[in-house]
Each structure stands twice: as C-alpha cells, then as structure tokens.
Amino acid sequence: MFEKETDVMIHVWKASIFWTCLSTLVVLVGCTSSAYRSLDPAGSSARGTTTHNTGSPVIQSRPASAAPASNARTASPASRPDQYQVRRGDTLYSIAFRFGLDFRRLAAANDIDRRYTIFPGQILMLREADAPVVAAAPSRPSTASPPAQPSANSRSSQTVTNATPAPSSPSSSSGNASNNNQLAWVWPHDGKIVRTFDSNVSDRKGVDLTGEIGDSVVAAAAGSVVYAGNGLPGYGNLIILEHQGSLLSAYAFNQELLVSEQDRVTAGQAIARMGRQGDQPSLHFEIRQEGKPVDPMRFLPRR
User: pTM for this structure?
Assistant: First the structure.
C-alpha cells in the first residue's frame, strides 16, 4: 500500500515538472517571437520608420514658391510667401492682385520697367518698394535680355506695357473723390446684391451680384484689360481692368470672356458672360486701390 502511494506521488511530481517546463518553454518561444517581430522592418512597430524603403518618393506638385491653395482669395501679409516663381499665364498684375500688392510697387521692388514684362520661371520678391518708382522702358532692346522664352507672341508668357498713361504718375490716396472726378463708374451688372464688402472676411473683398447664366457683364469704368484668364485660385474665369488713379477692377466667375489682355474698354462695354459661383449664377466684383481691396459701393453710383 505504501509503495503504491509512493509511485503515485512520483508520477504526480514528474507530471508537475513536465508541465512547468512546457509552460516555461512556451513563454520563452513567445518572447523570442515578439523580439523578432520588433526587429523586422515589415513588423507593425517598425513601419513608422521604414516607409521610405517601401513607398514611392513624394513629388511636390507645385513650385515651392507658390502660395498654398486656400479658400482665401487674397493672401494676407502673414500668409504671403517671400518669393513667387512666375508661371505661364501669369502677369505682373495678376500676381500683385493675388497677393494684395500694388503692381507698381511690386515692379519697383523687382527692378521691372514700365513694360511690366515677366517670364515663366522668373523669381519675384513679394514685397513693395517704398515708393512706386518704376524704371522707364528702354528705347531699344536691352543687351542683357533674359533667356529665350517660348512663343514670343503668346500673351500667356509675359505681361505687356501698361496701355493707359495715368497709372505711371504718382497715385492719389485721398479716397474716391479724385478718382470719381476722372472716371465715370457704372454697375457691372444690374442684378441683386447678395453679398457686400467686408474687409475682415477673406471671401468678401467685393460685392456679389445675382443674375442668369450668360448675362452680360460690363466694364465698370474705362480702362485696359491687364488680365484675362483662370489662373488665380478662388476667382474662376477672371478679368482685371486697370483704371486711372492706381485703381483696378475685377470680374470673377465668368462663363465666357469677351476681351483679351491689352484691349482698351469703355464704361458699360460688355466684357464677359456671367457664370456660376458655386451652384448659383453670380458675378463677384472687386475694386482695388494701390493693390488693396476697397468697398466698391464708394465708387459705384447709388441704386
């Protein structure tokens, strides 16, 4: 009887040792496996530091000098980059308009003469000279001309000399009184005003007028077309006119443009067909003085 109990105890003891050793072995195998996973580049703990070995290179989709895409139609001074690389379709006027700068002061800061000619690839410093003193255009081609550009007769590759004489003289900052003495302003469209000017809101730098798709959009004052295209974010098909007194007017979200850069227009002349702003027929209209948005109601006749 005593021998049987001894045998049972020996078997129990052996079984206990066996299961203890087996449990220890399982734990060791699990730890070793975890250690290997942590060192494996394909493991989850290493993926965050090895993506450059497994993925394609990231290619920047726009020049580093270009302003980031934004809902804001005009870059604020705080968000404005220091430089801008000119792209095909840009004009000095459109660049100044986009970044809220006076085109003459921008030209002066970059030693650009009164022809306001720029070229794709050119780097502009996005700042204004203290005074809008722009060098006179040379009487003959400069010997230090920039590298040859594609298609010399393409309007999209360069800007042109300002066609109106008044902006070459010092501007007046005394408000709209002096400008109204020189310009006769009309409404660009007779539609209902659905949004008014607010200098503190990025997308309210002018007035919005409703109408019907295809309605005529007219020049609000006599001037010259200095931009006609769709290269400015947040404006769609855009026309910019230059007027006397350091003034620009802008007509955005057009379905069709009826004028081209360098054209002279008169007040009330049809320059575009109304398009859509979002899902509604609309015209966005702005006036800029010395590059800064101003309330169009100061200039337009009372309704």
Answer: 0.62
